[in-house]
Design a protein that fits this description.
8-stranded mixed β-sheet; 18 strands; 10 helices; Recoverin, domain 1; Deoxyribonuclease I, Chain A; calcium; alpha+beta; about 475 residues
Amino acid sequence: MVILKFHNDPDIANVDSSENESVPSKGTILRTKTGYVSSTMGEPCVSCTTFNILAPIYKRLDQQQNQSVRESDFKAFWLARNERIVDWLLYERSSIICLQEFWVGNEELVHMYEERLGGAGYDTFKLARTNNRGDGLLTAIHKEYFRVLNHRELLFNDFGDRVAQLLHVQSVVPFSQNWNDSVEQEILIVNTHLLFPHDSSLSIVRLHQVYQILQYLETYQEENKLSQMPVILCGDWNGSKRGHVYKFLRSQGFVSSYDIAHEYTDSDADAHKWVSHRNHRGNICGVDFIWLHNPNKSQKPLKISWAEAAFGIIKYQLQKASLAENDAFSFLRADNNGNYITYSAFCKALRQVNLTGLSHGLSFQEIKDLWVQADIDGNGVLDYEEFKRIWNSTWSEHMDEDCTLEDSDNSIEDEAIGLAVKNAVLFPREVEKGIWPENYSLSDHARLTAVFSPVRLQCSRQSL
């Protein structure tokens, strides 16, 4: 679930330490004495919440005995829990709400959400996963805060039957009255739920899902000749900070709002300081993110980042097979007597580590693209130096950006309005310490809320 909301009072109320599952008491992060917060520049802030609400068809009622008993078999259970979820949403009165694992296959539940949210001033958009999986996404827009300029559906049509929603929204109230007279700020928002990594070979599917989202965002902005605007990616990413998806998004200039707010780095030491999900295996992990990308023409080309990420997965699969650098080169070289890797041997090795030859593996074109980028001199083979470049490829921890925060009194030639992370909180609060509370039953995910304030950006016309 994603929530964007405008605020305009500077004093955020104290946050309750407990997570009530009935209608919440006063004092959650989205409520203050007046119901609003503001940035230091006097502009309205944006708050964003992501929350997987756990579809009743997946919620197990008996973890110990019969795992086939699901909440969907008991109307009183699933209806009561979802009513409590809607109570929270209506209490918080957020401007944009995006739900993951929304039970689109149950007409009564869908009607309840649409009726209650519609009665509170929301327009709703739902999107089912492909192949009648039963669940999907729902996005609701509060007409008092945002107007929807466009709504697009992205169907991956892949092994996981996953989908994504793109919302192009514009503020109803001018977002930046102090700059250029009056600006109705526009934001691109993506709501999605990536494939669960049941097997390490599925990493390439998850990576490809994110690649498709970023490609679609690029194409959408180019085709519609849009000016620069912030992009927020929210949802259940089914992967932690140590995973390939996280590193891929970081290489594209996205930042994790929660980690920015708490000054956590990308290091392994900070990777497990918070959790947001207890999965069906009983493991707790941090998988729910609110990613922010500010207007910036200076970023690594998407195709380059994709290749680095894909090579990272290849390296991981080879290391999983206990192959060090020299052994991996020999493995990829196969039976070739020369000190180089041929394309056919490269393809054969990828099949052996389950990255091709399966319905969810790399496509023929993707393999060709990777080969072209790896074969630097274009002579049709990879020598050891070219292989080492792949093996030792590292992620860009910090992208070189030509956009900098500026004082609002300065005149800027190429200006854009972005978002700065002001705060971020997880509910229930125990998960911020890496603990999953046993008495929490609203979902198997925690709710993540981030607050953003508008900032003025100076963007260079020069690109990498």
